[in-house]
């Protein structure tokens, strides 16, 4: 009968002495446990993954775009163009739209998490333009026109600030 099975299952979890003894008996949950997901501060994890690996993927609509990025101003920041000629290709997006960013670990390049983001398109007159483009420029040391790269981005490219919000799915 179901009641007997429930009591038997409960005693297996608790162990012979108490729930604490039962936990010691079956091993404490950890990140390797297939059943237990360890709860972490996801905002810190997102920042950590984004800082350690400069490559991510933006999923927007039916497209998937591999991009180099920097973590700045509490967001994943990228520069590119929809034609992909002057800089890396970016999806055609609008302010406030949602996308998914896939972040990888730097050590083994495995998928670390998929993060829902809100897209902000930065303009040269926005308060975030200077600090974010300075961070992007510092990361983009191989640009042929490094001295004028920010001016070129202002005239010919799109700078995105991808703000994590909502769902994070850890791999």
Describe the structure concisely:
With about 170 residues, this protein is α+β, with helices and mostly antiparallel strands.
Give the low-confidence spans.
1-40
Beta-strand segment tally: 7
Order of helices and strands, N to C? HHHEEEEEEHHE
- Mean pLDDT equals 78
Q: How do the helices and strands line up, and which of them pair or pack?
A:
Blueprint: H1 2-14, H2 19-26, H3 42-52, E1 55-60, E2 63-68, E3 70-72, E4 75-80, E5 98-104, E6 111-122, H4 129-139, H5 149-156, E7 158-170
Antiparallel strand pairs: 1-2, 1-5, 3-4, 4-7, 5-6, 6-7
Helix pairs in contact: 1-2
Keywords:
globular, seven-stranded antiparallel beta sheet, disordered N terminus, 5 helices, 171 residues
How does this model look, in words?
- The protein is of the alpha+beta class and 171 residues long.
- The chain is built from five helices and seven strands; from the N terminus they run αααββββββααβ.
- Helix 1 packs across helix 2 (19-26).
- The two termini are 39 Å apart.
């Amino acid at each position: 009968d179901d009641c007997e099975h429930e009591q038997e299952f409960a005693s297996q979890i608790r162990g012979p002495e108490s729930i604490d003894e039962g936990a010691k008996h079956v091993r404490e949950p950890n990140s390797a446990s297939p059943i237990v997901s360890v709860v972490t501060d996801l905002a810190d994890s997102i920042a950590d993954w984004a800082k350690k690996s400069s490559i991510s993927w933006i999923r927007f609509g039916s497209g998937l775009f591999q991009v180099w990025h920097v973590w700045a101003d509490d967001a994943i920041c990228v520069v590119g163009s929809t034609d992909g000629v002057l800089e890396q290709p970016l999806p055609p997006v609008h302010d406030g739209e949602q996308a998914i960013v896939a972040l990888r670990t730097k050590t083994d390049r495995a998928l670390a998490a998929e993060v829902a983001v809100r897209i902000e398109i930065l303009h040269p007159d926005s308060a975030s333009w200077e600090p974010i483009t300075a961070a992007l420029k510092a990361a983009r040391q191989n640009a042929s026109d490094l001295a004028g790269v920010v001016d070129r981005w202002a005239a010919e490219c799109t700078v995105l600030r991808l703000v994590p919000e909502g769902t994070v799915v850890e791999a």
